[in-house]
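Subject: sequence -> structure tokens, single chain

Hey, anyone have a minute? Need the predicted structure for the following. Not urgent.
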Amino acid sequence: MRKLLLLALLLHGCGGTAETFSTPAEVPPAVTLPRFDDPDLVARDVNQAAWNQFLYLNWPSKTDERGEPDPSKQLGDPGPRAWETMKSEDELFRADGSDPGDWDTPEPLPPDFKLIDNDNPNFLDPLTPKLLVDLHGNPIQYEVRINRPVFETVRALGLYSLKGQLAYFNDVSSPPLNFPFGSFECKAAWTILDADDPPTYHTALAVVNVGTQAEPVLEERTVGLTGMHVLTKPTGYPNWFWCTFVHRDNAARTPTITEHFQVTPTPEVARKNEEMHALLKGTVWENYDLVGVQLAYVDAAGNPTLLANNQIETAFASTSSCITCHQLAQMGPGTDTPSRPEFFRGQNNQGNPIGFVGPPAEPQLPDLRSLDFVYSLTRAH
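Reply:
Had a minute. Here:
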């Protein structure tokens, strides 16, 4: 679908205008560009580490280097954020399975536009036909981005195509896949905005599909960031680090989430949010909340840890464990199509999916090989 949208965009001749990415410019001078990979801070104050990642990723991007924040700019300066100029999963995993080219190859879009669609919908969808929609009936839109360490690893090993993945994982001499420290993947959720919507969102100009996959309807619209799910590999840590952020108005914007989503931040997370909101007061970023973080399968008492985003894991928040879920990023041997484990354990009485939580269970299938928690690898063609 992304390829169809791109073709239509280019044929339509959309031309972006300056500052179509919008963020109020008045940010307190105390807000400076933080470190992205700070393992000492992860150990000392994991919630601050999550907020630092959020600010780093949402810092204005350099114009001559993809995926890098510009230290000469302020948080409130206009332009795409650093993560928005990282590679999209569709740039890495091309429809024809071809080499994605160099990292700094520009995204094939007119300036100041982003391209998102609903072919990677909310996880209400995998077992049911449900989509998360806003008050106007428009589906929430999603995109996945990865940083340079992930991109370069995938490209060097030829894992950007299904053929390349099968060759790698069918070879018993291939070492286990192990992404370098500092690797990053994120999934972002966007809502389509109208002129009378409050200016509380980080916004971008996008071409979106407001129709269906079978009958797409393409429109140029302003979109607002409603959720951001971040996965990083901190230096020296045995596991990846998950943190997730939501816009504070999501319950009003997408009221159906209240039927399923009952996750609230811990007191420690709530205090950190208050601290950061005070620092960011008067900017759009004070409207975003850290929901929580996850570093391990279980807590100190041995109970499974949970983490969910109300825009992404809406229907199974009570059985959502990012680390357990991403551990299921695996593939088995095959000739044309690899075997893969089931993503969910089943459905509950309401027809919503039930996720896996806690430490990994026995392998679902024989000879499964780990994708090192990076689920976007399953998007290869």
